[in-house]
Amino acid sequence: MGLSDFTDGLMRGIGMGDPVIRLGVTGLSRAGKTVFITSLVANLMDRGRMTALRAAADGSIKAAWLQPQPDDTVPRFEFERHLAALTGPQPYWPEGTRHISQLRLSLRVQPRGMLGGLRGQQTVHLDIVDYPGEWLLDLRLMERSFDDWSQEVMTRMTGRPGAPDYLAALNEVDLSAKFSEATAQRLAASYTAHLNAAREAGFSDCTPGRFILPGEMAGSPALTFAPLPPSDGKSPLRREFARRYDAYKSRIVKPFFRDHFARIDRQVVLADVLGAIHAGPQALEDLRRAMADILSAFNPGRAGWLAQLLGLRRVDRILFAATKADHLHHSQHQRLTHIVTALLREARDRADFAGARTEAMAIAALRATTEDVIKQDGEELPAVRGTLMDGRRAAFYPGELPEDPAALLTPARQGQSEWLDGDYAVMNFRPAADTARPGDGPPHIRLDRAAEFLIGDRL
């Protein structure tokens, strides 16, 4: 912990300086982190659609503006560019999260009530930290040796795309031979190709996360290893891979936890639950395990007074949000909420037991559809209508989610390869044309409720 962190924590602890809320935003690929942050900031600046955020509805928030983030070494979240992509004349989805970034939104707030009148206005800083969920999954590697991790990966590899190619490459290697960098690079490249193929197919648990999003670490020895089958002997390749695995943990994973993740005090975890359901039971079960692992990385519950004084905060509110609720008619939103609640039951109970407040809901940070009713075989079906990625307008009925989440989670846990009595489709819509009135942020579904849970008490 640096001197600036200590000073910031000390100032907060004794009531000096402006209050700061450090909000972490994470999720796995295609969960919509970039869109969530962009729409949240835009709707906090123009609050006409934020009626469920009490401080916005009652006028307590007097103004909101962006200013430089406090961490000079962390890239700035490109809010303006992403907002232009979502609301321009030809709207499109911005690129997803590939590295950590940060944005500071400052809110001038007039607290309500008698004490609020005596205190006057204050400024509350919302520091939003965006980071890939794939990186967060790496935190559980800290408790695993190379052999333990290898065994786990080789077991779950069965049935995933790209796995046969990696196993074929592995079979060509003499594990007892002298270490060869060319062999290491070939295995690492094959394993990385498997991870990317698995992610494209809807699987969530793809570690190490930096293999998929390497950034400036691409090609480094710390990212040039791969899982190996169990062996009684310590081959040269196994010794070197174990050394690089340990370097990955100590040089990449641990600094991320120390410098960024451990300082977060509010967290939203986004999940593309609909996408996982569409991909099939194995992808849904993989998402359940991945989200449980993500939550195990948190240190939930209220921090003691000494930890607060020193700035060592612990997450005390966690929101689990199933995104893309606009792909469903509102009559199915509650069912989606029940599914994400059941999906995350294990992880959520762990956080609740430790003292953190948690909430699950279905949201759409940017609404891309309108609701419609279509007729099919003489039956009226609740549907949504939007513009497809190729520019065509279409109405879409994705299928009916079950009332009981167990109808999905049980076959997923049992390892079934496909749904026996349901076909859950997804369709890719592009952002709708901007029709916001002055004072309104982008259209959304329950983003204001999400904001109320995450930061409402601090406003």
TrEMBL record:
It comes from the Bacteria. This is YcjX family protein.
